[in-house]
Amino acid sequence: MEINPQMIPSLDDADAYEGNIVEDLRRSSLEPLPEKVILSEEELKELNRNIIVTTLDDAINWAHKASLWPVTCFTACCTFEFIATSMARFDIARFGMEVLRPSPRQADLLMAAGTLSWKMAPQIKRIYEQMAEPKWVVAMGACAISGGIFQDSYAVVPGYNHIIPVDVYIPGCPPRPETLLYGLEQLRNKIGHESIRLENK
Amino acid sequence: MTKKIYEELQENCECARICGDYAEIVPDSLPDCALFLKDNGYDYLDMITASDHIDEFILTYTFKNLKDKDDVMLRASVSRENPEIPSLSNIWIGADFQERELYDLMGIIFTGHNNLKRIVLWDGFEGHPQRKDYKNVA
Questions:
Q1: ipTM exceeds 0.90, yes or no
Q2: A48 occurs within a structural domain
Q3: Domain assignment present for A47
Q4: Interface touch B138/A153, C-beta < 8 Å
């Protein structure tokens, strides 16, 4: 390709071009800056034609499952797997669950983590009853599901479902954080299919 | 080799009998022996435990001398029909909860204890689950 010598500006031309730019800037600097326009009028008109349609169920369920706050109420050693899950490596903050509430009034989720003795059972039931609707319970680990190795014990409740209703059971002794995350995903799916209509309950 | 404190204990409390590395006492002499040990430097009640030997319960008391790093073990057997032994909760306040736990799980009555009721299990629980004849009704 040949280079047209006329396309290459001379030094004088370049200086004049630069001078024009600077002069333009100096002139415009005396005037107030124009207002920022994010969307032009045409774009706004286009946007008005678009309506986002959803059902009330979907909107409410989306809000519910995106902010599941667990109550800080753990009975035994499965707790440590839950703590590991809530920390940076597995990070339940990805699902909006990182806010552990010490008050049951502000919590949505009771993590039934670990062995429950009969003497502790009234307190768990009371905490569950203090939680505001909607509320869910996840039974985590063998003891919470069925009493585990303590099933025949005179002192241990054979499963949280003898005390309070349970939504999701996560097996394991204790469950690995990956298992726990899968179980919580199942709970989120379950919440996603709930309905505010009475006949669907 | 028998520790010197056991011999002193046998001299002072007639009921005590040295059996190897522990002293066997009759239940009623327990407060006397405990007071003697407390006055002789064994001023820490380490633990109270009980074991079920079908026809009798054997209680084991361990006292510690924290200064000289030494310990003394006393054993007393009580019958199954009448499992009573004097309480040490007036001498060591730390004996309070341990005796309540033994009452709860083993059914041993500590006479002189001013609050002898269940501590681990709940009121209304039937039986004493650490006994060998306990039948679990889950």
A1: no
A2: no
A3: no
A4: yes
Question: Is pTM beyond 0.90 here?
Answer: no
Least confident of A33-37, A159-163, B90-94: A33-37
Pick the CATH number of B4-83 from 3.30.460.80, 3.10.350.10, 2.160.10.10, 1.10.1660.10: 3.30.460.80
Please give the C-alpha separations between residue B47 and each of B18, B28, B88, B99, in angstroms, as whole numbers. Answer: 20, 19, 11, 10
Nearest to B100 by CA among B90, B92, B110: B110
Could you identify the residue written with the tokens 């409390």? B13
Q: Which domain holds residue A166?
A: 56-200
Q: Does A25 reside within a domain?
A: no
Q: What is the pLDDT of residues A115-143, one digit of tens each?
A: 999 988 999 999 999 999 889 999 999 99
Nearest chain A residue to B121 by CA distance is: A119
CATH code of residue A169: 3.40.50.12280
User: Integer distance in angstroms from the first to the last C-alpha of chain A?
Assistant: 76
Contacts of B129 in chain A (CB under 8 A): 154-155
pLDDT value at A168 more than 90: yes
Structure-block tokens of residue A13: 């031309």
Q: Do B138 and A152 touch (CB under 8 A)?
A: yes
The pLDDT of B106-124, averaged and rounded, is: 89
Shortest alpha-carbon distance between residue A130 and chain B (Å): 23
Task: Give the closest residue to B43 by CA, choosing from B93, B115, B106, B108.
Answer: B93
Give A139 to chain B, closest Cα distance, Å. Answer: 21
Q: What is the average per-residue pLDDT within A159-177?
A: 91
Interchain contact, A152 vs B136, CB within 8 Å: yes
Q: In total, how many domains does chain A have? A: 1
- Single-letter amino acid, residue A178: E
Element (H, E) at A192: helix A177-192
Looking at residue B4, its pLDDT comes to 78
Asked if A118 lies within 8 A of B138 by C-beta distance, the reply is no
Determine which of A154, A156, A157, A162 to mutate to test the interface with B (most B C-beta atoms within 10 Å): A154
Q: Where are the domains positioned within chain B? A: 4-83
Judged by a CB distance cut-off of 8 A, whether residue A119 touches chain B is yes
- Within a domain: residue A4? no
pLDDT digits (tens, 9 = 90+) for A148-159: 899 888 889 898
pLDDT at A1: 62
